[in-house]
Amino acid sequence: MSEFIQQIINGLSVGAMYALIAIGYTLVYGVLRFINFAHSDVFMVGSFVGFYSGKALGGTSWAGGLGVMAASMVGCALLGILIERLAYKPLRSRSKLTVLITAIGVSMLLQNVGQLVFGANPQPFPDTLPATTFQVGGVVVSSKDLVVLGFTLCLLGALEYIVLKTKVGTAMRAVAFNPQAASLMGINIDWIISFTFGLGSALAAAGGFLWAYKFPKIEPFMGVAPGLTAFVAAVLGGIGNITGAALGGLLLGVIETLVKGSRWSTWTEAIAFVLLILILLFKPAGLLGRVQAEKV
Amino acid sequence: MKHPGARRWFLVAAVLSLGLGWAQDRLDPYFVDILTRIGINVILAVSLNLINGHTGQFSLGHAGFMGVGAYTAAALTLFAGPKLLPAGAGFWVEQLWFLVALAGAGLVAALAGLLVGAPSLRLKGDYLAIVTLGFGQIIAVIFRNIESLGGALGLNGIPARTNLFWAFAAAALTVYVVTALVNSTYGRGFLATHDDEVAAEAMGMNTTRYKIVAFVTGAFFAGIAGGLSGHFTLTINPKGFDFNKSIEIVVMVIVGGMGRTVGVIIAAVLLTLLPEGLRMLSGVSPSLKWIGETRPLLYAILLIALMILRPQGLFTWKRKKGAVVA
Amino acid sequence: MSLPTAVRRRVFLGVAVAALIAAGCKPSGGGAGTGTDIPVGEFASLTGSEAAFGRASHNGTVLAIEQLNAAGGVLGKQFKLITEDNQSKDGESATAVKKLISRDKVVAILGEVASGRSLEAAPICQQYKVPQISPSSTNPKVTEMGDYVFRVCFVDPFQGTVMAKFAAKTLRAKKVAVLTDVGAPYSVGLGTFFKERFVADGGTVVAEQKFTKDDKDFKAQLTAIKSQAPDAIFVPAYYGQVTLIVMQARELGITVPLFGGDGWEAPELLQGPGAAAALEGCYFSTHFSPDQDSPRAKEFVKAYEAKFGAKPDAMAALGYDSALLLSDAIKRAGSAEPEKLRPVLAATKDFDGVTGKMTLNDKRNAEKSAVIIGIKGGKFVYTETVNP
Question: Do the domain assignments include residue A38?
């Protein structure tokens, strides 16, 4: 039993980070209706910004760690906005596939620039937050797991507040619902899209920071695997739905962990996609998404 | 499927592949290598073009079907061949068995295409892209888990059967079938599905069926390309047929112009030559070495620039009204 | 198809093919190694996901070639190293090697680190009768591809045996758990050879867990292993993951030693907060230790540090040795012709490389001693040498 509880804790802690990345996919999909393949590489850049600012700062403290995370979030928010302005904005009126291919191009670009700038070797991530472990019965809880879960919950709360309670959030929802109508209502669509990219990228950066904090070896290709899983999580939860993305992330984290710990561990990579295909076939809108009739 | 243009093309291609097959041993092996890869890439790009271009679907799992074909063909020549064929079989028997292996590769890949396509082609656009992407990943995981297919190490010691004749004959067959199919009365349905799915449905067409036919045909030829590729590189492993390989093929289709067979062929040729060109350029003098190191980077920049500046593809000319699609 | 297009296409195709064939005709004359220098080909993963290994090995080779040339080369000629990058991608190596053989007329091919990609090049080298020397592919299959394929490292069955004996004798382990990377042939192979030997010697494998290459989270597997309470855990993986595995094991309260193979050997293993502390008391087998007592190794470490500003790892040392062995073979053969090099390479005996004395056996694998390194006080500490 204690093994099972331990696995659930392990799974939730990874799942929380999937959730943070998945939200970025969902936000962008909500306003622009395309899969931002470069999102997972923004996540990677997030951990490298954390790497450099953490090194510059030195030492471990709560204030310092939060500062480093804030630095990655701001850095990546800017990067996200820049990517959108330079690569995606000129394509706004083009077909979805064109944008999708461009996103794949941006992803390759970030990875390869990353390799030139950061080097190919995995880099050790500096300790920025204090860490200990607690023993509860047969279950070991690392403070890292608690930090990851706690931070994720706080960020989700903040996001929920922004989207539901602020003017910008209302505008975001309006653009997601119907861009033309929103623009007729006086909403600056370009600005809202930039804001959405910034927000999504900041969350990916937070995910990147936490990921590096928990798994302190970072390299330019580190985004690919969690990115794919997080993306599946977004679809699983119902793409476009923030709560769904978070739920999907946690769920996938736990399921993956349970599979990894079983004798079926070699099938782990396939699990996410098998689930995805099943969901798409039987409940195409995802767990929490609503079915939308396609406009003709 | 009568179509004079396609038939003429077929003849030219047949002569070309026979000529190249004859020239095989008289050419520099490096060039033979590049030419063979051109042939294989043309098959992959043209067959994906049927799905992504002509029919307007978006598959990100073409390499998965290629993998199915590669493993099937390799299993047929490595395991089944020695048991079924008399020992010391001559050149022609070997070549004939290779043909059987290639056909088998195509058929098994087509079957996989049917299994994936039938349930998922009801999905639209992005979702189909995701499912096919997932399929590619799952295929790799399955191969990795089958001990008798070599697991992560893959299969090696595959006999070298692919030559320029096979590569180009198969490429010609692919181009012929795709062109003839799209230009037939039946094939107009692919274009209708591409142009306006809703209108096509309203006219009483079963667009899902068209999508499945396109998908299965595309998978068939991808399987053949896989079989050729396996008997060319002589060693295959699950990693060789992953997402990155699929993207490579998608890029060929995009650069050539979706739905434009000629453009896609040119793109397949040029994109096979490009890395070799860059390789050569970086070898000219030490001061150009950076080209070799930044090869993937240049590729990414090219892709983004192309999408922003010329998204219809580099090699597309205006389609004349009423003209046959090529 | 409108006629102009058809014509245009045919003209285009005709010209393209004619140009290609003209360019591709076998260039005549200029046999291998007859010029003023000796061209040596290398293919390596200089970019892409495994660039870290490829670059280390490449650096070692570059250093060796530079030193050899500075010392006057061999047979009065200078070496010319031509390196091709395969971007860590599968399906690129064969083309690169064909280019090196047919265009650059290299006398031998050096490469690669990953067994999978060495296997791609091996049939080509065999076909064109150009010797291939793999610096650090340890999977036995590589040299089985033909008698032109050699390596300067030992093979996984040997390494598996060494570690199985070490676990039973030195670690006094009766129950071990094995954690392998199913995405890497190296890991699967080494794990299997270890298991076979350990079980044959009377031990039990209580848990077998697997992960794949891109994994960063191993807690699930480690939790499952922990519940079986093994005496030690064998992790035949690469250093990038090993650090994470060991740290997460300690986080879960697993205190038994973890041990592995040559994939652990890199200064990066101990880098990162808490890494060295977590790895305290762990062991691995490898080809080479920079702290080894041999003067030859010390010299190499010094030169490498001076040139690249970092301590060499096993990949670098083996890359260095592969070039050295080639030069030695050319000297012994008195010729740089590929076909004359083969028998000489095959007869290599007691060649003195920085990774130790090596003799190539009838399977063209280096028979040489393995080094076991322990981690003590945050440092790699040479523990023992195991002879074949």
Answer: yes
Dig out the tokens for A214 from the structure.
Answer: 């928990």
Nearest to B144 by CA among A260, C188, A116: C188
Amino acid at A108: M
B296 vs C9, C87, C102: nearest CB:
C87
- Write down the domain spans for chain C: 14-153+294-368, 156-286
**Pick from C1, C95, C139: which is nearest to B326 by CB?**
C1
- What's the number of domains chain A is made of? 1
Render each residue's pLDDT in chain C as its tens digit; 388 residues. 344 444 444 444 544 454 444 445 444 433 444 568 899 999 998 877 778 889 999 999 999 999 999 999 898 899 999 999 888 888 788 889 999 998 889 999 998 998 888 999 999 999 899 999 999 998 888 999 899 999 999 898 999 999 999 999 889 999 999 999 988 888 888 999 999 999 999 999 999 999 987 788 999 999 999 999 999 999 999 888 899 999 999 988 899 999 999 888 877 788 888 888 899 999 999 887 766 677 888 899 999 999 999 888 888 999 999 999 999 999 999 988 999 999 999 999 989 888 888 899 988 998 888 889 999 988 888 888 887 7
Asked whether the beta carbons of C125 and C131 are under 8 A apart, the reply is: yes
Q: Cβ-count burial of A248 within 10 angstroms (0-12 exposed, 13-18 middle, 19+ buried)? A: buried
In a domain, A275, yes or no: yes
Residue A94 DSSP label: S
DSSP-derived letter for residue C142 is: H
Taking the Cβ of residue C49 and every Cβ of chain B, the question of whether any pair is shorter than 8 Å is answered with: no
- Residues sharing a CB contact under 8 Å with residue B267, sequence separation 6 or more, in sequence order: B45, B252, B253, B255, B256, B257, B313, B314, B315
Nearest-CA distance A83 → chain B (Å): 11
Q: Closest approach of chain A CAs to the CA of B287, in angstroms?
A: 17
Question: Which residue of B lies nearest to A269 if distances are taken between CA atoms?
Answer: B141
Contact B290/A at CB under 8 A: no
Would you say the CATH fold of C156-286 matches that of C14-153+294-368?
yes
* B310 to chain A: closest CA residue: A98
ipTM score of the complex?
Answer: 0.85
Question: C92 in helix, strand or coil?
Answer: coil
Only one residue has tokens 């260095």, namely C320
Residue C188 β-bridge partners: none
| Count of helices and strands (H, E) across chain C | 13, 15
- The helix/strand/coil state of C307 is helix
Quick check: C211 contacting A, CB < 8 Å?
yes
Alpha helices in chain B (DSSP H): 4-23, 29-48, 62-75, 81-84, 91-120, 125-145, 164-183, 188-195, 197-202, 207-233, 243-256, 261-284, 289-293, 295-309
How many residues are present in chain C?
388
Name the minimum distance, in Å, from the CA of C361 to any CA of chain A: 34
Q: Which residue range is the domain that position A212 belongs to?
A: 2-121+142-282
Does a structural domain hold residue A174?
Answer: yes
CATH number, position A197: 1.10.3470
**C81 interfacial to chain B (CB closer than 8 Å):** no
Assigned fold of C14-153+294-368: Rossmann fold (3.40.50)
Total-model pTM: 0.87
Q: Which residue matches tokens 């299965």?
A: B216
Give the residue from chain C lying closest to A17, CA to CA: C217
* C362 Cα to chain B: minimum distance (Å): 20
Residues 6+ apart with CB under 8 A from A276: A232, A235, A236, B130, B131, B134
CATH of C156-286, one of 3.40.50.2300, 2.60.120.260, 3.30.70.100, 3.40.50.1220: 3.40.50.2300
Q: Is residue A296 part of a domain?
A: no
Beta bridge partners of C42: C83, C110
